Amino acid sequence: MNTDIPLPGLEVYRSSQLEPEDFLQFWASTVADSRTHDVDVVLERVDTGLETVDVYDVTFSGFGGHRIRGWLRIPAGANEPLPAVVEFAGYGGGRGHAIENLFWASSGFAHLHMDSRGQGSGWSLGATPDPVGSGPHAPGMWTQGIESPESYYYRRLYTDGVRAVDAARTLPAIDPRRVSVVGVSQGGGAAIAVGALAPEVQAVVALVPGPSDFPRSLALNDRYPWREVTDYLAVHRGSVAQVERTLAYFDAVNFARHATAPARFSVGLMDPVVLPSSVFGAYNAYTAPKGIAVWPYNGHEGGGPDDLLQARRFLLAL
């Protein structure tokens, strides 16, 4: 069944999320600090046995200079700089196996699939630890360091994403003018954030993106991972204002308000994990050219392979 307000209401919906006064300053300082570390990209060829795609184990410097891993997949035999896709994983997942996720390289793109620090044991493999600890938190990543924007987990993850774009743009196999960011769910939210923080990004593909529109989602969505936050606040009753302030720095709605790259979104109207209104909260706030695929009978899978095919057409048309 539909999980939110009808489509005509979604098309005009506006999130109540407010932007912190120092939002841009906070993120400019964060990104600048990360760039004081040499991105120091290291590639190691992986013998996968594949004949049409070459795969490299990648490491580069992310937030705090921490070493972040990923896979670089390139069409075999490519002899000129390629358009590139930097992909961010969904919640609980990592970069996966070297021979997974071959769609983008098989479509003629260089594909840098970034690992998510501290994740990668839920449904796909990860290989990057998060060396930063946090205070008490609910199980999962959503409340790690949530009492402060400076300590919050997603500050590190989104900064890693910016540095992944920086890393991709240094590689001879990639055309630095044609680097786009892509993600599903958590990865879609990361793509919106990185697209706003890295003006070098050519385009953004945000499929069923979250986390977005925290004010509405936390009030109406009892599904995890949103419930990680409500579980935390059910115990830390005096921290509501501080947590709400922290989350405002990481809401896709606020990043969307500073978008400069063209974007392709998608939404499933039967999605119980990321409410359609939260997707439209970010989409309707998005200030650059945009389009959205609406899947009326789909949930959090969105359009699945049809989303990917539409995304490929969108990027090839740029």
From TrEMBL:
<dbReference type="InterPro" id="IPR008391">
    <property type="entry name" value="AXE1_dom"/>
</dbReference>
<dbReference type="InterPro" id="IPR029058">
    <property type="entry name" value="AB_hydrolase_fold"/>
</dbReference>
<feature type="active site" description="Charge relay system">
    <location>
        <position position="271"/>
    </location>
</feature>
<feature type="domain" description="Acetyl xylan esterase">
    <location>
        <begin position="3"/>
        <end position="305"/>
    </location>
</feature>
<dbReference type="Pfam" id="PF05448">
    <property type="entry name" value="AXE1"/>
</dbReference>
<feature type="binding site">
    <location>
        <position position="91"/>
    </location>
    <ligand>
        <name>substrate</name>
    </ligand>
</feature>
<protein>
    <submittedName>
        <fullName>Cephalosporin-C deacetylase</fullName>
    </submittedName>
</protein>
<dbReference type="GO" id="GO:0052689">
    <property type="term" value="F:carboxylic ester hydrolase activity"/>
</dbReference>
<dbReference type="GO" id="GO:0005976">
    <property type="term" value="P:polysaccharide metabolic process"/>
</dbReference>
<dbReference type="InterPro" id="IPR039069">
    <property type="entry name" value="CE7"/>
</dbReference>
<feature type="active site" description="Nucleophile">
    <location>
        <position position="185"/>
    </location>
</feature>
<feature type="active site" description="Charge relay system">
    <location>
        <position position="300"/>
    </location>
</feature>
